[in-house]
Amino acid sequence: xxxxxxxxxxxxxxxxxxxxxxxxxxxxxxxxxxxxxxxxxxxxxxxxxxxxxxxxxxxxxxxxxxxxxxxxxxxxxxxxxxxxxxxxxxxxxxxxxxxxxxxxxxxxxxxxxxxxxxxxxxxxxxxxxxxxxxxxxxxxxxxxxxxxxxxxxxxxxxxxxxxxxxxxxxxxxxxxxxxxxxxxxxxxxxxxxxxxxxxxxxxxxxxxxxxxxxxxxxxxxx
Length: 222
Fold this sequence. Notes:
Elements: E1 5-8, H1 18-31, H2 38-41, H3 49-59, H4 68-86, H5 98-108, E2 112-114, H6 121-128, E3 136-137, H7 150-158, E4 166-170, H8 173-181, E5 185-189, H9 192-197, E6 202-204, H10 212-219
Parallel strand pairs: 1-2, 1-4, 2-3, 4-5, 5-6
Helix pairs in contact: 1-4, 3-4
């Protein structure tokens, strides 16, 4: 079978905005008397803003103390802080190996699709100088969050691709699970044991080691 599209997560795959998310969530949590650390923050990777907030409230045993309107305001405050931090992003913050992979896909005329839960993805790609490198940026609004496969299926549809002929790249367990649920080949970036446990077909500890040829061989695609 021929590769028809490659679907990318954003945070932890193309660039590192995870630290900015952590800083913004930590500040918001502290304002309502909840302490979160980096270990807890791992649970927030790859999921939506509102689900992240719900997990923080459960962690602080305050899930019953806020109305939906108040929760939306807390999430908006977090996002405002996060967006202010994004002004620090620049093209040099693209992870190593990503430009080369996008070049290889362009040479083969294979669409690159962004499948991130971040509503700020267009702004981030623009800051990184990558906005024109992607065929589609899937709008996550109204789409069930990962590990549901919906955002990957939507990305494949936008590229006119058969999910069975697609490769998804993720750094989060929820993201890897979503790729597999969509019937795609899953490439993990990060800790091998953790991501393999979520179903990753192949894992690289760094994007610098991403190799399209070896991934295609492992996926039985060409």
